[in-house]
Amino acid sequence: MRKKLSVYFVMILCIFNLFSCSKDKYEPVTEDEQVEDIETEDDEEETNEPTKSIIKVEKEETEPASEVKPSEEVKKDEPSLKSYLMRIASVKEDEVVLFDQRDFDNDGAQEAFAIIGEIVEDYGDQKVASGSIWFISKDGCRKIKETNGMGFFDKDRLMKMGDTDYILFDEVYVTALVTDAWYVSDGMPVETPFSAKGEIVIDQNEKDRFAIVDDCYDAEYYPADDHWLGHTWKKYYFFYNDEDGKIYEYGGTDISVETAEYWCGFDIVDKYLPKGDQVDSLFCRGNGLVVLNYEHKEGDSITYYHYIYDFTKESLVDEMGEITGEEPLWGIYLEALCPEIANYPEVPGPNM
User: Fold this and answer.
1) Which of 84, 106, 80 is nearest to 26 (CA)?
2) d(CA 34, CA 28)
3) I need a labelling partner for 8 at 20 to 30 A (CA). Which of 153, 165, 197, 237 fits?
4) What average pLDDT does this structure show over 133-150?
5) 288 and 264 in one domain?
6) Do residues 193 and 307 share a domain?
7) What is the pLDDT of residues 61-87, one digit of tens each?
8) Domain range spanning residue 234?
């Protein structure tokens, strides 16, 4: 009864709470124009300081999800921008495996992103191109990213958050995808703080929210060799805040055992921590996830486990957010994948 009243109490608090939560050189499009180089980073980069907020329990959205769709090429002025790219990069048309042109920042001018390379894998509906990503506008053309993995898929994705269109390029590795995320501001390409952190996934039922699946080896550690084993995949959650037009991550705030019990309705440490094992962290995210990380030492190795309790579902969940049983999950679940844009909630306890 207290847990249900607590969740109701948080939902009421949400009404009053607001989360404060680029060695190629640009050349002129025409022989008469002189164009400066595009910098790989903005001269004045905005920073999102970590913020505090009252914990926010989201109720289910019935509106359409943030739009994710295959690219649709805008034909206006495409021949000039595409031929300009081919001239500057010294490539043939069949080497341009992707070309997506549109007015990305709604300033009335066309820009384009392209992938130049060669097809190295063919999966039928998608191909993998080893090469690089380029940005083209009327002011110039340059390479902004070289592949670090097998290559990029030959189809991009668009993700709309608020009024901003984010263009996503999925880079293929042997066991995972890593998404590069860009947008255009004042005619310039900007790489996001959450770019190349993992695979961006979007649930069509979630409005202005998305997740990033991070893969790493963090299940077993051998201190003597400083060696990690155990491949894990974990999902981290992000949201768009319409109050300031920025994207934040649901960061985890450290909480006490008593506060965890207050929100879960039971003592998660007493119930799930094996005798003799050590708690590494206990925290709560603003989307209702309570996380217990712990370690088990045996011989010359340390094994890391965690549990995730979603008090909005009143159930344990796995790394992908699906309801699961009581077996522990492998690996270390971080408080935040992108700390620089994480929103850390203020979590009321039983005496607040």
Assistant:
1) 84
2) 6
3) 237
4) 94
5) yes
6) no
7) 434 433 444 444 444 455 689 999 999
8) 205-352
